[in-house]
């Protein structure tokens, strides 16, 4: 690193649940600076989740995020002309970022009429341990397990 890293800007909690994690999620969901639209999509999705499952949508969303949060990942490292996939622990901040990004990415790829529908379906699937975001986590863990032999190359 060449210079000092910039300070982390504190994120304001969201208006409904007073949770910073919701704000982070909405910030990732937002397109072209349309934050109120992103909040609308998120809250609508949670209402649909509550209707589908009969439980609190916010709690189901938190459970879904916990289910798709990775513990390990593989990083490429070049050693002696060969590139190895080296498994490493994921920092706490990056774990949350990855799970948020995966959930939004695979929600967008789903079939559905609106983004709120797609997001609601992905949240329900992830909370049950299904869906594309959960599969991504499983694949990441499987790859790390397969490359466990190269763990001694860790930096």
Overall number of domains? 1
CA-CA gap between termini: 15 Å
SSE ordering: HHHEEHHH
Which sheet architecture does the biggest sheet show? 2 strands, antiparallel
And the CATH topology? Ribosomal Protein S7
Secondary-structure content class = mainly alpha
Rg, Cα atoms, Å: 18 Å
Percentage of residues in helical conformation: 55-70%
Low-confidence stretches: none
Strand order in the sheet with the most strands = 1-2
Let me know the number of strands: 2
Text of the CATH class: Mainly Alpha
- The CATH superfamily appears as Ribosomal protein S7/S5
Number of helices: 6
- The CATH architecture can be named as Orthogonal Bundle
User: What's the overall average pLDDT, rounded?
Assistant: 92
The general outline is: globular
Strand content bin: 5-15%
Explain the overall architecture.
- By secondary structure, this protein is mainly α.
- The chain has one domain: Ribosomal Protein S7, CATH 1.10.455.
- It is 56% helix and 10% strand.
- It contains 6 helices and 2 strands.
- It has helices at 20-29, 35-53, 57-67, 92-109, 115-127, 131-146; strands spanning 72-79, 82-89.
- It has a two-stranded antiparallel ribbon with strand order 1-2.
- Helix 4 packs across helix 6.
- The two termini are 15 Å apart.
